[in-house]
Amino acid sequence: MLKTLPRHQINSSAWDACVAASSQRILYGYSWYLDAVLPSPDWKWFGLVNVDKNGQYQAVMPISLRRKRVAGIAYRWVVHQPFFCQFLGIFSREEAINSMPFLQLMQQAFRYGSTFSMRQPLDNPSLFDTFRAQTTHVLDLSIGYELVSQRYSRDRVTNLRRAYLANWTVIDSTDPEPLLTLFRKHQANSIDGGVADWAYDIVRNLLIDLNKRGLAVLRYATRENRIEAGALFVQEGNRLIYLFNAASEAGRQGNARTLLIDQIIREKAGDQLVFDFESPEKSSIRDFYRSFGAREEPFWTVRWNRLSEVENFARKVVNVVRGR
């Protein structure tokens, strides 16, 4: 039976066991990860859960929600994709799963979807008002470093050689503050609307959880005792995710992130792993990831609006008030 459950009614152990047993297994689907990237009071999540007669979760689908505010006053919850979570979807113990009941129930329970990204191909895209194909970039590390590195572009090989000649010292750490400082000083201003303080808190709290589970590798590139670049890699199941990174101008000019990525690829190559670059839509960054020989892997982003005319009118008024 398919149910809609609020977070406090979800059995975390049963949920996580279902995610781990599914062919769709990925870091983003675990209850503890969702708790970390969807902090109250302005974020929360529900679960669509298919429960068998023994109470075992056979299939689950997390639905992430964000509270909308006007002049500091909360007025509505909407489906919204969280940070550090490029896609969600259905996690099923069975290989073949009919997504239609989940998607229909999602729209019945949550009538406005601002943005929601899913890994599964959609059986019926017409369910949604907007349907857009997107891609991340991935590398198959199981083929070994020699074959992986042969697919690096000529420019990437040249820049990697320069990076190794640049006298970088690479250190492991559990402290996210240098990474957050680099991002705040050198990357945040390029993001429309800036980056709120609570987003940095998500990284801090998430890293605590990741370290508890032994899933994170946080590395910095230093020179003359100055940290100039950092990268957070997370491995869970058969996927190694390039979750977060930042660099100063000196780090960019010295190809420090190329070095950090190449080093983790060297270490993990030969394992049954997929390296996921978590590609944004910015073309220059996607080109950078392609230069490592990465191939595209699709996912899909949808939007929908099932609000009444009165609710839509109120929504338009709110957008005018907010200057949109």
TrEMBL record:
Residues 172-277 form the BioF2-like acetyltransferase domain. Gene3D superfamilies: 3.40.630.30. Keywords: Transferase. GO terms for molecular function: transferase activity. InterPro entries: Acyl_CoA_acyltransferase, BioF2-like_GNAT_dom. Pfam families: Acetyltransf_6. It comes from the Bacteria. Signal peptide: none annotated. This is Acetyltransferase (GNAT) domain-containing protein. The lineage of its organism: Bacteria, Pseudomonadati, Bacteroidota, Cytophagia, Cytophagales.
